[in-house]
Amino acid sequence: MKSTLNLFAFICLLSFSHISAQDTTVTFTSVISSPNITFPIQLTHAGDGTNRVFVAEQGGRIRVFNKSYVLYDTLITITGMGTSSEQGMLSVVFHPDFKNNGYFFVFH
After folding, report:
1. Taken in order 73, 79, 85, 87, is the CA torsion positive or negative?
2. Considering the entire predicted model, what is its pTM?
3. What is the C-alpha separation between 53 and 63, in angstroms, rounded?
4. I need a surface site. Which of 8, 20, 105, 108 has the fewest CB within 10 A?
5. The sheet that has 71-77: what strands, in order across it?
């Protein structure tokens, strides 16, 4: 029994000898920088062809940025949402036909 365990341990050690670290070079680019954004939880688009970017904040506000990533407007502000732990707005999705019907959905 002991020799079987030793053989198993030896095989495990040999199998790890060919593992090497992968290149972990990561490049980050700051796209949106706004002091007015608090607790951002999601960055998305509506798929309506306008190239607008929507940033959902945990406190209930959805900010709209134009295609140059300049703050354009606030889509909606839902009041009374907390921002601690898993409270507040957690996600926003846009209806596939948002361009025509303007529907979007918020998970909180």
Report:
1. negative
2. 0.64
3. 8
4. 20
5. 40-44, 53-57, 61-65, 71-77
Distance between CA 59 and CA 81 in Å, rounded?
Answer: 5
* Token pair belonging to 68: 């140059």
User: Left (φ > 0), alpha (ψ -120 to 50) or beta: where does 13 sit?
Assistant: alpha
Q: How far apart are CA 84 and CA 70, in angstroms?
A: 28
User: Which two tokens mark 69?
Assistant: 């990533």
How far apart are the C-alpha atoms of 80 and 63, rounded to whole Å? 17
In 10 A of CB 104, how many CB atoms?
16
Structure tokens at 14: 């040999």
Tens-binned pLDDT, residue by residue, of the chain (108 aa): 667 777 777 676 666 655 566 666 777 666 656 667 888 899 998 988 888 889 999 999 999 988 777 778 888 888 888 777 778 888 999 999 999 999 999 998
Cα 19 to Cα 16, 26, 39, 86: the distances in Å are 5, 21, 39, 39
